[in-house]
# Entry
Amino acid sequence: MAPLERLRFPVESTRGRRYPEASHPYRGEFQRDRDRLVHARAFRRLEDKTQVFPAGLSDHFRNRLTHTIEVTQLARTVAQRLGLNEELSEALALGHDFGHPPFAHSGEEELNAQLARHGSFFNHNLHGLRIVEHFEQRYAMFPGLNLTFEVREGLVKHSMDFEPGEYPELDDYLPGQRPPLEAQLIDLADEIAYNTADLDDGHSAGMFTRDDIAAAVPAYAAIHETVEMQFPGAPEKVRFLEALRGLIDFLVGGLIEGTWRAAEASGAANVEDVRRHRPRLACLRGDAATATGELKQFLHTHVYNAPQLQAERERARALIAQLFQLYESEPQRMPEPYASQARSEASWRVACDYIAGMTDGYLHKTAAQLFRD
Ligand code: MG
# Structure
């Protein structure tokens, strides 16, 4: 028996959908949610949203769609090994980045800065929930995707905890309680996926050498040394990829073992215990957590704060600010249904929803048309 089967979220315990639906003859409820997420427009838009490196630099770098697929396979592996509900984890991983605006974190920072002028803020988890609840329109009987409670809850909680009243719009989502393990592990699978992918893409972009990583991350250095002994004749790029594969394995193994140990030590006997355990039970084993901290630090220095990406980030923020301010003062410049929505709602709110849903390419095209002269 898989080690944490007793903590698996059983699909038959779902709190169900907002609008009741008949069950499907051969797909379970979480499988249906997975399929709804894959067929959503927001899923396809991930293809043209920046993960870290803007599109056009290389054909080989990750975008938010390929990142999502990487997170999904890591999450499924971990869920399967621990005996958790693989279908629930899969659905959550596929939807975990739906709420990201164009231009990755610079987009989020700029929308946040614009909303702050109105005493509000932008949060991609809350925006992701609005997408699946309201903006996706593909069913005759209800707005949104009508996902099960656990998938909606996991989408807002995978990377944040909140207390009652902290986000009034989330009061239905068991504030103060942790989500099931299937959702908790998404945040860590996400972190493993982007740290190792950014290492790969940054290395391809020539931002650092293998020795630079080895000097900053001892766990990588050990794997790197083994690879050097095993494959001295292989091309450098292949030796790097061998070491990177070893690093992913080390971190994923660390997530499986860390979570397993924490769950055992907590005495949690069922999903309700997981929900009530204040520190999240999904976690990395100590050495994997240390390596993750070192990796993050390394990536900040060599990739995220690198001048090439900084300049791009400034340009992206300026573009979003310009577009936001235009739509805020002249909401009729937005297409329908946004323009009419802005007659009954604050134009800044509508402008935010419209811009946040854009892909990088669409935003560039729109700005080029609007600011031609
Ligand atoms: Mg992500």
Summary: The radius of gyration is 22 Å. The pocket of magnesium ion is lined by residues 67, 71, 96-97, 190 (CB under 6 Å). The CA atoms of residues 116 and 146 lie 31 Å apart.
